[in-house]
Amino acid sequence: MSTFNPRKALLGLAAPLLALLVAFLVTSAILLALGDPVVEVWQTILSWPRPRQLVQIVNGATVYYLSAVAVAVGFRMNLFNIGVDGQYRVAAFAGALFAGQAWFPGPLNVLLTLVVAMVAGGIWAGIAAYLKVKRGISEVISTIMLNAIATGVVQWLLLKVAVKQPGSNTISTPPIPESSQLDGLALIPGASNKVYTLIILAVVVGVAYWFFIGKTRFGFDLRATGQSETAAVASGVKVPRMVVSTLVISGALAGLIGMPLLFGQDHSYGTTFQAGLGFAGIGIALLGRNHPLGIAVAALLWSFLDVQSNALQIRAGVASEVVFIIQGVILFAVVIAYELIRRADVRLEQQRVARELAGTRSDAPSVEGASA
Amino acid sequence: MSVPGSGSRHLRPDPAPGPGRGVVAITAAAPERAADPAASENAVELEGITKRFPGVVANKDISFAARRGTVHALVGENGAGKSTLMKILYGVQRPDEGTIRVDGREVHLASPSDAIDAGIGMVFQHFQLADNFTVLENVVLGAEKLHGIGDGARREIRRISDAYGLDVDPDALVEDLGVGARQRIEILKVLYRGAKVIILDEPTAVLVPQEVEELFDNLRELKSEGLTVLFISHKLDEVLSVADTITVIRRGTTVDTVDPASVNARQLAELMVGAELPTPQTEESTVTDRVVLRTEDLVLAGLGDSRNVLDGITLTIHAGEVLGIAGVEGNGQAELVEVIMGMREPTSGLVFLGDTDISDWRTREIREAGVAYIPEDRHRHGLLLEAPLWENRILGHQTEEPNAKGFIINAAGAKADTERIVKEYDVRTPSIFVKAGSLSGGNQQKLIVGREMSHEPKVLVASHPTRGVDVGAQASIWDIIRKARRDGLAVLLISADLEELIGLSDTIEVILRGRLTGTFDPDTVTAEDLGAAMTGAAAPAAAPDAAPDAAPAAAPDTAPDAAPAAAPDAAPPAGDPPTDHTGDVEESR
């Protein structure tokens, strides 16, 4: 007997493929309606990326992956950590500030910075956890508010510690020492740019996520609470404690989002540091169904669309923002499709169970079996 | 142990199902209307209504008819299938079989708006009013087309209010009004939409006694104007005081339709919980004198100023003993279980497992220490419906062998053991990888029982262990409990099924309003005695019968407490308002 079920696997793939198709059709319709060149747009987006763009796609996906896993941890417990955005900004600032002091040599500085960032993200998420457990405030509301507060707090602190970048108007934390800058990995042949070294971090996080959620007692308690809080309580799960742990872990993972950027690209936290990564993570986690591999595929797709859309203005004369329409429609379609498929799956399995039991045990005194 | 008077009080002694069963019965009780043609006689007729959900049959062959211009009560325990039936009548759910006739005309109700068109309106237990709107705005909301939203609507509201004595001011703000007034607005809303049949779902649960009297006056007004009221409740004395006809539902089917003049609360309680002749307990007592579970003066305060939900519960269970708790639902049984299982902190009092004080322990520690738990609501507390069987085998025993090795879940061990449980406890399933929600109720319950018996429990807390399961599963669950008792398990059995309680228990305690009010020996007790103690309706005449029988047989440590308390408590003084019964407990849960 095996857990693998071809019918289930097929159903699982059907939803995202269907969503992509719907996104393709809806976007085409919008382009047509506005008189934009549909064919050129798709040619540009669907052309095979050049090596340089491949590296950009992988790098973008690395950051998205970390963000989506941070969100997915909460999703598995039915917690909506909308605050990943704020958590990663607080953490990136704290990490950049710490790394910029160069208190420790090269690689040790990198490792300790990761810890500092995780602690900072965890503490920021811990505020929402405290409010939820002790005051009953929905984490959705509090994390959204904390995003706004994070923006202000980081901006204010940045002004206190900032140094001016030579030759520009932007300000930032002191740059990290060269010994701690990560040069990148030349994974893709023919590309002049390099893949973030901290793609390793994304892989480690992915494996750890798979292991802790799927294989440990903690993960079981977490998933049980997500599926039915009442059943989890009766099984002995201390739900408030789980809420705090999960939100803090989610925040700590969010703290890692900015690290590949910090060590591989920006080398400091400043006004130009990439924003909005936390929100993208929500969509990617949904698209990837909170599955460690599913999220990886979704992150690559997202990053692919981002990078490929850059050329739209030049090649097709269409604003690259059209890609947001595609991404948005994919999300809508996929959420609807997943729910439909889930219901179909539940119904089909109930029918199958009833049928098999009615077939094998005609003597069973089960009223239900006979009715199917 | 037959039930005295059974049969004689029935309107129709022969309960054979068949078309028009309810109609015939009721016509007989109302000879003055017998001349009318049957079609216009009954406002609503249900015949053979059956509704299945995957795994459960919620309603089975429900048949009854409500005469026009009467209050027709539907009574039954929680989970008996009343709410499913009401949802079917209000078009929220469609029956798999059976017909509904309104005014003699067959109707198909696919949605609440179909029901409203057919003249059926529903007042839900939880009001659906916008606090910051006026009465007028609430009433017209969604029915703007009928009389507009201005003076036309205001006139119509006044007219209805005056016609039925509802005393509703259309321009009052809802947030300024009390619960009773809000309920009258809900009734008015339904009338405004042209309902001729009004369903009231547990309407008195939220009311204080005076308001209940006012509501009943309103209901009498409504029926005198030719409207029909379907009144759902499990508070028997209220039903007896207001209803013209009572239909009893048990285990998803209509068991009888009776005339309130010919039954008393006790007989009604027996009908509700099933007072068939209990299976005589042939086995010898296995009760030892080793105390396994003991509670000392447990108190759980109610919300706000309401009375205590649990009030000084002291009980003792020995190894090899089944202690049954009888009571009408909502008298504190669920809370008692939650306190023992560590899911709720008692206000005061202690719980001992053996000699160990476990009052401060958390649920997981209590379960690890050997307290097995069969919850009352397996869907909410016993299973993860969307998880496979083998993961459900882990639930509740996440930290124990064979489910875990240290901090890692031992999936292989859990799967192997699930296969064993499926085989040993006859869980009928195609594999252990199907979702728990796909199984029938009986098989789900067998999985839970098998899981709970697999960790060498010292105590089993079993809440309604056979509710909603088929007869075959019921018998095997009873066998499992009997066998565990022989092996020295201490069992706390909570059940609404007297047959189950009498058949399995060594001692029966009755719980009423959070107190243990009587101890009975299942070998000598009659269903009537239990019914009386459960409803607090013990007539003084019945007391001498029950008391000498029960008291000496009771466990010595509980008797001094419980026995003297039973008489005064069980027979409320004449002035006691009929509502102060059970229902408000349920609200506070």
TrEMBL record, chain A:
Places the protein is found: Cell membrane
* Superkingdom: Bacteria
Q: Name one GO cellular component term.
A: plasma membrane
The UniProt entry, under InterPro entries, shows:
ABC_transp_permease
Q: Which UniProt keywords are given for this protein, alphabetically ordered? A: Cell membrane, Membrane, Sugar transport, Transmembrane, Transmembrane helix, Transport
Question: How is this protein situated with respect to the membrane?
Answer: Multi-pass membrane protein
User: Coiled-coil regions in this chain?
Assistant: none
One Pfam family linked to the record: BPD_transp_2
Give the signal peptide, or none. Answer: none
Q: Which molecular function terms from Gene Ontology are attached? A: transmembrane transporter activity
Can you tell me where the transmembrane regions are? Answer: 54-75, 87-104, 110-131, 140-159, 195-213, 242-263, 322-341
Keyword Kinase part of the UniProt annotation: no
Q: Name the PANTHER family for this protein.
A: ABC TRANSPORTER, PERMEASE PROTEIN, GUANOSINE ABC TRANSPORTER PERMEASE PROTEIN NUPP
> What is the protein name given in its UniProt record?
Simple sugar transport system permease protein
Source organism (scientific name): Humibacillus xanthopallidus
Automatic annotation (TrEMBL), chain B:
Segments crossing the lipid bilayer: none
- Kindly give the SUPFAM superfamilies that the UniProt entry links to this protein: P-loop containing nucleoside triphosphate hydrolases (SSF52540)
Q: Where in the cell is it found?
A: Cell membrane
Q: Which GO terms describe its cellular component?
A: plasma membrane
Domain of life, per lineage: Bacteria
What residue spans carry the region label Disordered? 1-23, 538-589
What Gene Ontology molecular function terms does this protein carry? ATP binding; ATP hydrolysis activity
Residue intervals of the ABC transporter domain:
44-276, 293-538
List all Low complexity biased stretches. Answer: 538-569
The UniProt entry, under Gene3D superfamilies, shows:
P-loop containing nucleotide triphosphate hydrolases
Specify residue ranges for compositional bias: Basic and acidic residues: 578-589
Q: Give the way it sits in the membrane.
A: Peripheral membrane protein
Matching Pfam families, A to Z?
A: ABC_tran
Q: What is the predominant subcellular site recorded for this chain?
A: membrane
What keywords would UniProt list here?
Answer: ATP-binding, Cell membrane, Membrane, Nucleotide-binding, Repeat, Sugar transport, Translocase, Transport
Q: Which InterPro entries match?
A: AAA+_ATPase, ABC_carbohydrate_import_ATPase, ABC_transporter-like_ATP-bd, ABC_transporter-like_CS, P-loop_NTPase
The protein's name in its UniProt record: Simple sugar transport system ATP-binding protein
